[in-house]
Write a structure and sequence with these properties.
The structure holds two protein chains of two kinds.
Chain A: E1 2-9, E2 12-20, E3 27-31, H1 38-46, E4 53-58, E5 61-62, H2 66-69, E6 72-75, H3 87-97, H4 104-115, H5 130-142, E7 148-151, H6 160-175, E8 179-183, H7 187-193, E9 196-201, E10 204-210, H8 211-215, H9 220-227, H10 231-240
Parallel strand pairs in A: 3-8, 3-9, 6-7, 7-8
Antiparallel strand pairs in A: 1-2, 1-4, 4-5, 9-10
Helix pairs in contact in A: 3-5, 4-5
Chain B: H1 2-7, H2 9-43, H3 45-69, H4 77-81, H5 87-118, H6 122-147, H7 152-165, H8 169-176, H9 183-201, H10 220-230, H11 232-254, H12 259-274, H13 276-287, H14 289-293, H15 299-328, H16 337-356, H17 364-391, H18 397-422
Classes of the chains: A alpha/beta, B mainly alpha.
Chain lengths: 244, 423
């Protein structure tokens, strides 16, 4: 649960008075334009960013403690700094860091098969494509089977087949009783995989609810553009592009 | 730098103050030691020679570091690399200018130290050191080219060896004895810097990361060792340290030094090179901070584990360098025992400096700041230990070894505390 969260970078307010909850068995999508505070919010939920106001509670435990971190599995936008490891080593490292959860290896193997990267398991992450690196970090996180899975830029750099597999995996995690919180720019993906969405603009919630509630009569894209005030700007953009 | 200052204001502040005071300290030391050094060097040619050799080796090491951290064309990044900018402009702006700038920055305290020591022979002394810097930089370029399987590396290595055989340390030794003949060392400096620039201009492109793991590391400690061991810059530095130690010992022997002097100087140079591992390790760990900081583990325990891994890797490189020096100039291994204590303190200082001012493979400024912090911490530690050792009766033997081990352990704790706090 995120309650009146406030995040700052120096004097810059990244997120203000942000509240929402991820219930078990639900997939919640954080949507919004670039720089609206999605990644900052996810980092606060994971415990990588300390809020200046409000609170984040994970499975009843306030974030900032080891117990809270034990409830969350995290997939960053880019799994940096581990280029010298192969997939097998990253999976083994994450398993050790999370104290070898039961069934981890079985789940990891199933996910490796699902994402079809078994043949690349000994290749250094630095030698894999961006999308493949992200898949490896997803497998490491998903195999942990934590009560909450946090995925930043869910579909970034993934090919269509991997996106389809990811959709299935996220729904399976939710069916298993876990909560999923993801950030994405792919509204069609969000529409298909999310139960609830939170629309952010300039660090504030501008709309939230189930996908159907937020989309209303139209599409999620239309609701997004209207909510962030981008609909009217598109006409201006089309006019200005005449200069190209 | 600002992030480092926020994390460890005292240490970074002390480091910056130390760097700012370096010219004044150098002048003070030069004025104080000048008459004694000049007198001793005039009386004892062998001493002048040893002093000159060690100074030139240090200058060569600085040349290696400067050549490796000059940003070069990679600083443009993927997008700007495609921009219509001539190769010459890129080379001048991103290789030559940063190199000369950093060299000037380093030269100021050296010059202020030398003037009271060498008086009118200072230009010759500076030219000698400049030649050593150029040769060190050329060694780095030759190593890079050979590591990238480019045959031109052999040519650069051959030309470097030919210039080294002309003995750049001779000019400095003569300057210590009051001989100011500048033409020979100046020519040598010019030739070595031209050789380096030519080699830098034709540096082969870095190959894309490829390959797969031959063994699978498991657990944070083994994974940390694997990451440090596989990191390109650290691997390159490890090879250079071992080569410099072995080659340095051969060179020193060839130039007439005793086995003891050759072995000790060369092994100490190798240990300095190996110190890059603990200096760089906290910065490498920080890049993967998301995985450590989101894991349900004590950040202090993880930082301690990484520090232990960095020290282990550095000890392996330092040990290999010492063995190379011993192979080239054999002496009783026991005679090198004090170097183990020296290495422990050096690696500890590197760990603390790297935790306070993280090293970054792609950012030259951060690397320079990290090296400056290392120099400041190492100077502080050595100064402190020099005063403490007589007070606690640990000037030599087991007591000195214990003091060094305790200092290194303290450094490990300090670096883990800094890294853990930052997390």
């Amino acid at each position: 649960m995120v309650d009146r969260l406030e995040l700052r970078y120096g004097d810059v307010v990244a997120v203000s008075q942000l509240s929402f909850a991820v219930e078990p068995g639900r997939v919640v999508g954080l949507l919004g334009p670039n720089g609206c505070g999605k990644t900052s919010t996810l980092r606060a939920v994971v415990g990588l960013l300390r809020p200046v106001g409000g609170r984040v509670v994970v499975n009843g435990v306030p974030q900032g403690s080891i117990a809270a971190r034990a409830q969350v599995a995290y997939v960053p936008d880019e799994p940096t700094g581990l280029d010298e490891l192969c997939a097998e080593e990253l999976l083994a490292l994450v398993r050790t860091l999370y104290r070898s959860p039961a069934g981890y290896d079985v789940r990891a193997e199933a996910l490796v098969h699902a994402f079809d990267i078994a043949a690349r398991s000994r290749v250094f992450l630095g030698a894999l494509s961006h999308g493949q690196r992200r898949i490896v970090s997803m497998i490491a996180a998903f195999a942990l089977a934590r009560p909450l899975v946090v995925v930043d830029e869910a579909t970034a750099a993934l090919d269509p087949e991997a996106v389809a597999v990811l959709r299935e995996v996220l729904r399976a995690l939710a069916r298993g009783g876990g909560g999923v919180l993801l950030a994405t720019q792919e509204l069609a993906f969000a529409e298909r995989v999310c139960d609830d969405v939170v629309l952010l603009s300039a660090g504030r919630v501008v709309a939230s609810g189930t996908v159907a509630e937020v989309a209303g009569e139209g599409t999620l894209e239309q609701a997004f553009l209207d909510a962030v005030g981008a609909g009217s700007r598109l006409a201006e953009v089309r006019r200005d592009l005449g200069a190209l | 730098m600002s992030a480092a200052f926020v994390a460890s204001p005292l240490l970074v502040g002390a480091g910056v103050l130390g760097v700012a005071m370096l010219p004044a300290v150098a002048l003070w030391f030069g004025t104080r030691l000048g008459p004694t050094l000049r007198e001793a060097a005039a009386e004892d040619a062998a001493l002048a020679r040893s002093l000159a050799l060690s100074a030139c080796l240090a200058a060569a090491l600085a040349g290696v570091a400067l050549a490796l951290i000059a940003p070069g064309v990679r600083a443009l990044g993927a997008q700007l690399a495609a921009a219509p900018v001539s190769r010459l402009s890129t080379l001048l702006g991103l290789t030559l200018v940063p190199f000369v700038f950093a060299l000037t920055f380093l030269a100021l305290p050296v010059l202020l130290f030398l003037v009271p020591v060498t008086h009118s022979a200072t230009p010759a002394a500076c030219a000698s050191l400049g030649a050593s810097v150029g040769l060190g930089a050329a060694v780095a370029e030759a190593t890079l080219a050979l590591a990238r399987r480019a045959a031109r590396g052999l040519g650069v290595a051959g030309a470097t060896a030919a210039l080294a055989a002309l003995d750049p340390a001779r000019g400095l030794a003569e300057a210590f004895q009051g001989d100011g003949a500048v033409s020979r060392p100046a020519l040598l400096a010019f030739a070595s810097l031209v050789l380096w620039f030519g080699a830098a201009a034709t540096r082969p492109a870095e190959p894309a990361v490829r390959g797969s793991a031959r063994f699978v590391a498991r657990g944070p400690f083994a994974v940390a060792i694997a990451r440090y061991g596989r990191a390109r810059q650290l691997r390159r530095q490890a090879v250079a340290s071992v080569a410099l130690a072995g080659g340095g010992a051969v060179l020193l022997r060839g130039l007439g030094s005793t086995h003891e002097v050759a072995s000790v100087f060369a092994a100490a140079t190798g240990l300095f090179g190996a110190a890059l591992v603990p200096l760089a390790a906290p910065g490498l760990d920080r890049l993967a901070g998301w995985v450590w900081r989101s894991a349900p583990r004590s950040q202090l325990a993880l930082a301690l584990c990484h520090a232990a891994a960095a020290l282990t890797a550095a000890a392996a490189v330092g040990g290999a360098a010492t063995l190379a020096a011993l192979a080239a100039a054999p002496i009783a291994p026991g005679d090198l025992a004090p170097l183990a204590a020296f290495g422990a303190v050096l690696f500890g200082a590197a760990l603390v400096a790297g935790a306070a001012v993280p090293w970054h493979a792609e950012r030259a400024t951060e690397q320079l700041a990290s090296y400056a912090a290392f120099a400041a911490v190492a100077l502080l530690l050595s100064g402190g230990l020099a005063r403490l050792a007589p007070l606690v009766g640990a000037r030599s033997g087991a007591a000195a070894a214990t003091l060094a081990a305790v200092t290194a352990f303290g450094c490990v704790l300090a670096s883990a505390a800094i890294s853990g706090r930052r997390a």
